[in-house]
Specification:
eight-stranded antiparallel β-sheet, 12 strands, about 250 residues, PH-domain like, alpha+beta
Length: about 250
């Protein structure tokens, strides 16, 4: 996880070749387990699920924590909670990336004001499983996430980055809480992600095609049949949480 590295111009900053899968404009996040003042208090903002990570952007520009990025390889103990009294929420732990502006581990709770917690959580677990299958070290418990790499130069993202094309993957949920990000709010770095996504080969191809003019095709969606057919070498928390809420 890295802090204050995934926002730009009041929008979200993603890597070259990264796609936004889900977006919700009405969530709150709470953090615990850290003395760092960045994590104090409940924070209202936007949540993104991309092909490589979970990103939160704060709506309040005066707060010190403006964004945090949690690559799938840094997540653990992710669970979808359904309390008898109160709204559903997602909880988990995130390990810090080297150069990520904080050290250690932080716990989080993610609340969806407009609903969609279960749907987002299930999609997050599915994406994490697929990405971990691409992790070159096997995605074993205790593996450190790759160091955060500075974004370098960035520009407004081309349209394919805003959301997956129709029929992309086939397991993304439909819910009123999810919408496409507003125009001119997604920006893309020139650098590809330093960690695996749900389809690493697709990300590399998209990164190389980033500068292709829109009317000449640009990044294209992969065939869903090309996704890894199995999910292995995963932290037990992913499997347990997924089975618990199926």
């Amino acid at each position: 996880m890295s802090v204050n590295t995934a926002h730009a111009n009041n929008g979200v900053l993603i890597h070259a070749g990264e796609y936004i899968l889900l977006h919700s404009d009405s969530v709150t996040m709470e953090f615990s387990g850290q003395d760092n003042g960045l994590f104090k208090g409940s924070k209202a903002g936007r949540i993104y699920l991309t092909s490589h990570r979970m990103i939160f952007n704060n709506k309040k520009s005066a707060e010190p924590l403006q964004s945090f990025s949690a690559p799938f390889v840094a997540l653990s103990d992710v669970e979808i909670e359904q309390p008898v009294f109160g709204a559903n929420y997602i909880k988990g732990k995130v390990r810090a990336q080297p150069n990520g502006n904080f050290v250690g581990e932080v716990k989080f709770k993610l609340h969806f004001k407009a609903g969609g917690a279960i749907e987002y959580g299930q999609a997050l677990l599915r994406a994490a499983k697929t990405a971990m299958n691409n992790y070159h070290r096997g995605g074993l418990v205790g593996d450190d996430p790759p160091p955060y790499q500075p974004a370098g130069s960035w520009n407004e993202a081309p349209p394919p980055a805003y959301q997956p094309p129709p029929g992309y993957y086939g397991w993304l949920p439909q819910h009123d809480a999810f919408s496409g990000p507003a125009p001119n709010t997604v920006f893309m770095s020139d650098n590809p992600p330093p960690y695996p996504g749900i389809n690493s080969k697709e990300a590399e191809a998209a990164a190389s095609a980033y500068n292709t003019p829109y009317n000449q095709g640009g990044p294209s969606a992969p065939n869903p049949n090309d996704l890894p057919p199995s999910y292995h070498n995963l932290p037990p928390s992913y499997d347990d949480a997924s089975k618990k809420h199926q």
